[in-house]
Specification:
Two copies of one chain form a homodimer.
Chain A: E1 3-7, H1 12-22, E2 26-33, H2 40-51, E3 55-60, H3 63-67, H4 71-74, H5 101-116, E4 120-122, H6 138-151, E5 160-162, H7 170-179, H8 183-187, H9 205-217
């Protein structure tokens, strides 16, 4: 079985992706502590990795908080939108956008992959429900896959970045989670909420999206049980 | 004048690039502390930024040391070659190769650029003398430029990664340094040596390359004076 580095935030999407990857690869889960508002999601990631019986690596990347510019790392209002930079505020972009986050995550996944002899990287980014984040689009993932491959010795690659949820709605993701062994139970540990509330605050944009997904799919959220 | 983020390691190449950039852009120098063997180069970077009278940002990225896999960050023998991963050792790659370093550096530069409203990034990577590092090649830089642009809101870009030294020999870089006002004096502060020796140890691969460059160009190294 080939190895895969799976980016695991501890949320619904990455948990589902880890289950997807577990059926195909020998998985190593990687979580990144970038100074997000709460560490509850890192604790969730740890439980989920244990549930799937995979190695779990947690790396610290203080640079995102240090650069700042997002409500997820600088403590500003998450309900607002558009203000992730002092001098630039393109209309409509949520304040939860962390510039460079997925680029940095994938670059680190690439470095870990080389170290561990993996050629596969799995991430739960999704273009459909992408909330306006440019670094969740397929076109970005393809560019980054190319950059990772070219950054590394040719003998180590080519690297493939898998995005099983890319074209799915949240409801489809829920149905996929239901179909893969072990994922439903793992979802009970997952935390999607921007406030870090176990079971969800129910009102933040991430919770709203999650609630709608489970409702559309016609299932109760195992994390709310 | 448009803004540029200049990656400044404190070595010869990035110092020359900062001088090049200073003639074209309003520059912000960014240095990255990734757990390299010595902090002497970060102190050099600070002096060089001061010399050019530019803002200097230092960010910590412990993740490279944590992942390990290079003699520059894990304390192994710099003279050896080929062993940057436990399970993979493509022949001939120096142990000083840090997998993902330039990718991470450029991703961070991109995030800083968005925060500060810059669309230009300058780096001293060089394909000619690239020592076998895949992430110093033009083809990688182009892929990364594309990835940065796609990772960010379109209103913030497109981003341009400038590599003024890409096709130069070290001797040509020395002549370029001589021709740009202020660079020669700044080079007196620069440290290229892998051992962090001010003036150079004279024997490590980085010193050997630097010495040959100055000799070929027919000038004395201002850092050795």
């Amino acid at each position: 079985m080939e190895k895969a580095i799976v980016l695991l935030s501890g949320g619904q999407d990455s948990t589902t992706c880890l289950g997807w990857a577990k059926e195909r690869f020998e998985c190593i889960a990687v979580s990144l502590n970038y100074g997000q508002r709460h560490v509850a999601e890192l604790e969730a990631a740890s439980k989920i990795a244990k549930h799937f019986d995979v190695i779990h690596i947690v790396e610290n990347i203080p640079v995102l908080k240090s650069i700042g510019g997002s409500a997820l790392v600088d403590g500003s209002d998450l309900a607002g939108s558009g203000g992730y930079g002092d001098s630039q505020a393109p209309g409509g972009l949520p304040t939860s956008f962390v510039p460079g986050r997925n680029m940095l995550f994938l670059a680190i996944a690439g470095a870990v992959a080389v170290k561990l002899g993996a050629k596969h990287i799995v991430t739960g980014v999704c273009q459909t429900d992408y909330s306006g984040y440019p670094d969740c689009r397929e076109v970005f993932i393809e560019a980054m896959q190319q950059a990772i491959t070219l950054a590394m010795p040719s003998e180590c690659g080519p690297f493939q970045v898998h995005t099983p949820l890319m074209r799915m709605t949240k409801a489809e993701t829920v149905r996929m989670a239901k179909a893969i062994p072990g994922v439903w139970e793992a979802l009970a540990h997952s935390i999607t909420c921007y406030q870090g509330v176990k079971g969800g605050c129910g009102t933040c944009p991430a919770c709203t999206l999650r609630i709608k997904g489970f409702a559309d799919a016609g299932f109760a959220d195992p994390a709310s049980a």
